[in-house]
Design a protein that fits this description.
Length: 125
Amino acid sequence: MYPTLQSMGITSIQDIEKFTLRYEGGNDVLKIYYRREKGSLLPKSKKFKFGRSTKTVLADGGQQTYRQVQEPSLTVLRAMEELEKIVGRQHEEKASKEDLVKELEHLERVMTNKIQEIKEKIDAM
């Protein structure tokens, strides 16, 4: 029923809660969030990166000037269509201030943990 999502390895389709799509470092990053019971060992989210295709198009018909245009992957577009069928149009393309604060706090925790891990490796040398 959802061939693109299944080809991406997503099997818990009934547990999908929401998703986000953002552009980061030249890639489209699709993140899918799942409903999980407290204490579950399954991941709460999965992240997928998709490269963009580059096309050269005629920019001005009279001047014969060309420019490069990047387009999202066909796979990410199909996955978005399937995800929108599953969760409806719940996802917001514009993040709220609260969402951005939560994302920043999460990033700070991840970076702090990673820095500590690297320091421990250095000390062990």
